[in-house]
Amino acid sequence: MIHSLYLNRGLNWMLNKALSQHVCIFTLHRPAGPHGLTGVDLEMLEALLQLLTRHGCEFISIDKLLSPSASLNPAKNYICFTVDDGYEDQAELLIPLLLKYKTKPTLFVITDLVEGESLPWDAQITTTVLSTRETSLNAAELGVPGEKWLSLTDRRYIRRYLSLHAKRLEKSARQTFVKALKEVLCADTPINSLHFTPTNWVRLKELESHGLTIGSHTCSHSPLATLTKEDIREELERSKNILASHVSNPSNVFCYPVGMNEDFDTRGIEAVQEAGFIGALTSEPGYFIREIADKKPFTVPRLSLPASLNTAVRYTSWLEKLRTHQ
Description:
This protein is an alpha/beta fold. The protein has 15 helices and eleven strands.
């Protein structure tokens, strides 16, 4: 009953007419698994997709949504799905499920990851923290602000804490930090990256033929605000060239690495525009609102897919969209 109220077409039409077209853009990362991260519950996701389909919601690709010529019907409740990174479990489990329900998803890939060159810096931090046999870390020695000693009991918290510090460092300092962290925590312990295996271009090409769009999440997943202007341009140009050489129709939309407001600045926005993209996605929470996106297509917000079905449905509802205006 509550789901029918949330997804009422008439109320959704009234909101879109009164407050400009609102669209929920979901962002997903890894499916739940042994990788030690908070992952997407695939059973919950399938239940959500079935529910959205049954209530007449319309799935739309991010490229169509951000196209300057796009004409959106206010009577429709559009839903957009995006996935970030490019790991094997995403290509084997998550993307096929999204394609099964014809959601027109876009996967934004870290090209160095898919090329097999290296894990992105944040995945290196994660695999190091999860692999270590140490029980504490002298964070002060590594230049991490806050408490000198950190307990490693809660590995997920420590991973996030160290990643938050690392993402604010400039490129070379971040590389130095990750290297030092490995030496401190895993000097005599092999780092297990088994559950961080990337997908490959052959698989992505196959998924593209079934309806997946593939876009740029840069080469290294470095926050653009921490790079020089030259490095930003190199990340954008090289990732675009790699995508063009492997897939037929890469996305014209860019996805900022990490993606919070502090992770990109005007230099990055200008570089993305100059690289020929039609828009860019952030990780800041919020809805695509037509009148705002028309003016600011390079800072489009998204919503992380919540863990519960009821909350996920509520995010797509006229009620939640209305609440954001209060």
